[in-house]
Amino acid sequence: MDASFSMALLLAVLSVSHAASSLSIVKGEFGASVTLPCNGSEFRGTPEAQLDVLWRTSDGRKVAHYSRRVHSVDVGFQGRVTFPTARIRQGDFSINISSVTFRDEDLYECVWNKGPNEKGLNDVRLYVLEPPIPKSVSVPVGDPVTLPCYGHINKETPKESFVQWKRGDELVLKHSSDEVTYGPKYEGRASVSSKRIQKGDFSLSLSVTGVCDSGVYQCSTDQNQNVTSIVLELKDYRHYKSVSLSLGTPFSLSLPKEPVKVVFSKEGTLPKVPLCSVDTGGFKCEPKYRVWTEWKNLTVTSDDVGTYTVIYSWNCVIRHAYGVNIKHDNNNYYLSFLLIPIVVIVVVCIVCIRILCVQRKRKKSNNLGHGRVSESVSTFSQDDAADEQAHLTEDRSGQ
User: Fold this and answer.
1) Is 153 helix (H, G, I), strand (E, B) or coil?
2) How far apart are CA 310 and CA 261, in angstroms?
């Protein structure tokens, strides 16, 4: 009796030792592909009609099965498991699982499943790791964005998973079972996927970003002690509708009855200067822009060039935006362009004529001066001759 018990205990120990020695560890990030190895080389050359390989989880749930030339995959792995026949024929019973989730984390068994002679070939422990989360995400204002968050779930009750997203102290969204609660600014544009939550993906999606959505967002779940933090950075709005107007032409914005505010920016960056607001009390605008409250137009000047953005007051989402610029008259522009060389030629001609006139005047003055000198010399010579003649006459008289 004692000998039989000792033999049974020894066999159990050997069996456990064998099982432990055939255990493989595989790790993969959420969303990645992994390979669960299984060496079936001892069955290489087995007729295809007799091949029978089964992959299952530790609780007996079938993952993939190949038997008598037929493949079958459990519904939870359909479209994600690769178990090629050519590889099975060569004695490689490994399978590939793509897009792994936290629900896939388990102990897997590879067994030769031919009739009553079932034989365990390999056990694989799969660990699914959280993917790296960026410190920040940057998108232009008005664009959609997804803020990532991943974590382990209770596989027994995946539909009861809880997640909460906050921006600072402000509630964005809270999901518990099938109930969702939204923060006032985020209703209608914030969401999480119930199906992906059951896989451990708690990522938050905003269908449109508002001008005041930037900041630190925090994701917390019931199965994870650590809180995931990520910064949302907003870049310049890029969906402005360009409007070209001539100076002095009318311009007006269509203001809705819902609460909005109108802001203006010279640089075309994020809005800075408030112009108007619409609320339950009516319209409130800066003096120059009160004409809009009377459904009249604003006469455009060079100071009005810039961007006008209409923003919903309750969630900071841009309703519409316009970029106003001054339109140049092409005909006048080309006419001015053609007149430039003509004006230059006229100016050059005037300068040349002026230079010629000055030169002629100087030449005439020089000629007049030369004539006067000659006349003076001639007069001086005649006087000298007369004096000489008078001296000769006197000399003759004395003799």
Assistant:
1) coil
2) 6
Alpha helices in the chain (DSSP H): 2-21, 85-89, 194-197, 330-398
Q: What type of residue is 142?
A: G
Contact present, 175 and 196 (Cβ < 8 Å)? no
Q: What letter represents residue 259's amino acid? A: P
Write the DSSP string, 22-51: TEEEEEEETT--EEE--B-GGGTT--GGG-
Compute the average pLDDT of residues 202-230: 92
Q: Which of 189, 55, 196, 75 is nearest to 126 (CA)?
A: 55
Residues in the chain: 399
Q: Across the chain, what does the average pLDDT equal? A: 81
Q: Which residues pair with 52 in a beta bridge?
A: 67
User: Which of the pair, 256 or 37, is modelled with greater confidence?
Assistant: 37
Residue type, 285: C
- Among 252-261, 302-311, 362-371, which range has the highest average pLDDT? 302-311
pLDDT confidence of residue 10: 35
Apex 73 CA angle, 69 and 74, nearest 5: 150
Helix (H, G, I), strand (E, B) or coil at 371: helix
- List, for residues 343-357, the tens digit of each pLDDT value: 778 888 888 888 888
Structure tokens at 379: 């007069």
Q: What is the DSSP letter of 141?
A: T
The DSSP code for 328 is: P
Sequence-separated (6 or more) residues with CB below 8 Å from residue 180: 173, 174, 192
| Paired tokens of 103 | 């629900």
175 has which bridge partners? Answer: 163, 180
Query: What is the per-residue pLDDT across 73-108, written as a single tens digit (0 to 9) for each?
Result: 998 899 999 998 889 999 999 999 999 999 999 999
Q: What is the CA radius of gyration of the chain?
A: 48
Residues 105 and 45 sit within 8 Å (Cβ to Cβ): no
Please tell me the pTM assigned to this model. 0.70
Query: For residue 130, what is the DSSP state?
Result: P
Contact 203/165 with Cβ under 8 angstroms?
no
Nearest to 22, CA basis, from 112, 98, 102: 112
Q: What pLDDT score was predicted for residue 296? A: 67
